[in-house]
Design goal:
By secondary structure, the protein is mainly α. It has helices at residues 2-8, 13-24, 28-40, 46-60, 78-89.
Length: 96
């Protein structure tokens, strides 16, 4: 998994977003919101943000096998709540 993660974080932007959509069911708008949230909370380095984005998406991934055509759904404020929950349970992973 670590090799896959390290290779994935270096993908071009559109390819990385497509990977997040196909593997985790989030669209580009949700991805951009997650990316901006991590940036505002101190992760300025893009590689650190991408590591945390993938870790966060694993954290919120449904436990049941929903197949590849599922969509993550967040109610009003739900994404921010999940991001805060992730940060309180996980130390933000940085490259240092």
């Amino acid at each position: 998994m670590k090799t896959v993660l390290e290779n994935s974080i270096h993908l071009p932007d559109l390819t990385f977003v497509d990977l997040c959509e196909s593997n985790y069911g989030i669209n580009r708008g949700v991805y951009n919101t997650i990316d901006a949230w991590f940036y505002k909370h101190g992760l300025k380095d893009i590689l650190d943000r991408r590591r945390n984005i993938l870790s966060f998406l694993e954290f919120i991934k449904p436990k049941s096998d929903l197949g590849r055509n599922f969509r993550q759904k967040f109610g009003p404020g739900g994404l921010a709540i999940k991001l805060q929950e992730y940060c309180s349970n996980h130390y933000l992973k940085t490259g240092t």
